[in-house]
Amino acid sequence: MKGFSALASTVTADGALDPKTKELVATAIAVAVRCGGCLAFHVKAAIVGGANREEFQEM
């Protein structure tokens, strides 16, 4: 878990894409692979990051 946590922190940090956008991408991937736990995690993170209904619909 320590390694996964470090990876997640690095990936979601600000960079070329902001964290909200990265979470929207991760949400789309979770939908595609049908991972319920992943979907719940990334939807919540995107909402905390400021994603709104319109962004989810477009994503």
Q: How is the biggest beta sheet arranged? A: none
Round the mean pLDDT to the nearest integer and report it: 92
Q: Tally the helices: what do you get? A: 4
- Detail the poorly predicted runs: none
Tally of DSSP β-strands: 0
The radius of gyration over CA amounts to 11 Å
- How far the N terminus sits from the C terminus, by CA atoms, comes to 29 Å
Q: What is the domain total for the residues?
A: 1
In terms of DSSP E residues, the strand content is under 5%
Fourth-level CATH superfamily: AhpD-like
* CATH hierarchy class name: Mainly Alpha
CATH-defined fold name: AhpD-like
Layout of helices and strands:
Elements: H1 2-11, H2 19-33, H3 36-48, H4 53-58
Description:
By secondary structure, this protein is mainly alpha-helical. The protein has a single domain, classed as AhpD-like. Helix content is 75%, strand content 0%. It has helices at 2-11, 19-33, 36-48, 53-58. The longest helix has 15 residues, at 19-33. It is globular, with a radius of gyration of 11 Å. The protein starts with a helix and ends with a helix. The mean pLDDT is 92.
What are the key terms here?
single chain, 59 residues, mainly alpha, AhpD-like, globular
